[in-house]
Amino acid sequence: MAAIDTGIGARTDGAGADTNGHLIRVGPRAELHGVSVISGGRHGIAVFPSSVSEAVYAVDNRCPHMGFPLHKGSVADGILTCHWHHARFDLESGGTFDPWADDVQTYPTVIEDGIVYVDARPHGNRVAHAKARLWDGLEQDLNLVVVKNVLALLEDAVPPAEILAIGGHFGATYRRGGWAAGLTILTAMGNLLPKLEPEDQALALYHGLVNVAGDCAGQPPRFALDPLPTHDGRPALAADRLQRWFRRFIDVRDADGAERSLLTAAASGTPPSTLADILATAATDHFFLDGGHTLDFVNKASELLDMIGWQEATAILPSLVPGLAMARRSEELNSWRHPVDLVALLEPKFARLPELFAAAGSDPERHASGTLTATLLGDDPAAIVAALATALAEGALLSAVSRQVSYAAALRVARFHSSNEFSDWITVLHTFTNANAVHQLLRRSPSPELLRGVYHAAMRLYLDRFLNTPAARLPEERPGKLAALPTGADTLLVGLRELLDREQQIETAGLVVHRYLSLEHDPAPLIAELGHLLLREDAEFHSYQMLEAGAALHSELAPEDPVAAVRVLVAVARYLAAHAPTSRAMLQTAKTARRLRRGEDLATEPAEDAEAD
Ligand code: FES
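YS: structure for the whole thing
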């Protein structure tokens, strides 16, 4: 394109006041020599006449990077350069040469009878553009591009499931090692969305997507295999046969064989519960894989498919296979073999699982609480195994038993003493999230094989016992401290937010949450606030897991056992308080994106101090 001389110094003297339907009048072409700014679009439209032809170009007047007024930019040889960070745009198409800046929106122009008009209907499909740019942001690992396009999609009423699907496809494709923390965070945040304030819903998606991008950055992609071929007349392979193959291949760490078996099952219409069973069974054929993460990933992949649709199973589920095949098996760990050989303790008991599985649920009134919890938190692994068997044999619901293990693991967090090594927060967290995964998967696809996972989690709980020695006191064991706290719901929530502006407010955060719930304030605003407290931080992987699993367990326990439900959210608040504050760089980027969406000029308008963290 030939050079265009814009002439710096915009004309804003009423141009654009005259409109004709979608057309905004700019003025006579013969009188346009420099850039003009007209009202229209989201932030005003900058109109650039060519100095070498009759052409006129119109672009959004805010730089898509950080909002600098583009009418103050320069044009040379058809390239518009923003003067703040020097992003460059093809003036005609709006496409950027600097992917971190995003494309600028362009508008059609027409000249009729010598008069220039801008069509206020922008070029292109905004939703399609934002989806494509979100994908670009994931590819380039650009937080600002990700959050801007999440905001754009939500403003255009795109369902969050479509955004989750973009992140799911990207994460499942662009990491050879397969499913990892980012996709787990994305799914956890998807689960939490209904419990969050609207502004935090965008933040939640942004956090998940940024973590997916981070996992994939610099990684080789996965090249998917195909299902086994089908031939005319050959019946589909039975799911139980494919499951047998899958388990055998995972056992010998043959990822390719396992992937083809799984893909064949997924491509042949195997029901979701059976697909989850195939994966969960293989994930419990060995003991407590990869510190509990592997089974958690299986559960999270199932939950992601619940949100985006199981028709995506062939795209998403194979990403689990590398982790399943290569996972560290806890029977290989010294801690599981000495001084007590937990593997030798459990294996003979597993022969009884089909019988216990059949007996479970025959007496739903048989509550698996109280003494079972105390035994689970004790120091006798044989007693723990016996107590689980007794509860099942006496007819307790499977899900009641698995939930009780999950609750006991949450209590480990509620009673975690800050005199422990800081890194051990993660140890108790791993047990809790694994127990939660077993519980959720048992509700989805119960089987005697998956029941082994309850025992695995219970043994891990036993191994964590010294992290509660000494045990931190629960809030109800500190009545004097509780009584000194305010009573109003809003006051308590504001106090909680202020607490997490300071380091290591672990005990007080637990007290505030207990105070709030014991006064029977609505738990929903508290959970939303805990979500906000997480999402304003540059959180690490396990904090997302803690909140999501804790909120889910709280919801289940609250109707039946409100005391236990309170303790679960105390555990969540303690965990978040132990990991706050951070530098909050992600929140700063999100604030920038929000200001851009509002059309603010970030170059000259300072942020409002009132914008709360
Ligand atoms: S390059 Fe335009 S605002 Fe940064």
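YS: worth flagging: Residues 1-18 have pLDDT under 50 and may be disordered.
IM: good catch. Also The chain has five domains: 19-119, 126-216, 239-326, 333-394+404-468, 475-586.
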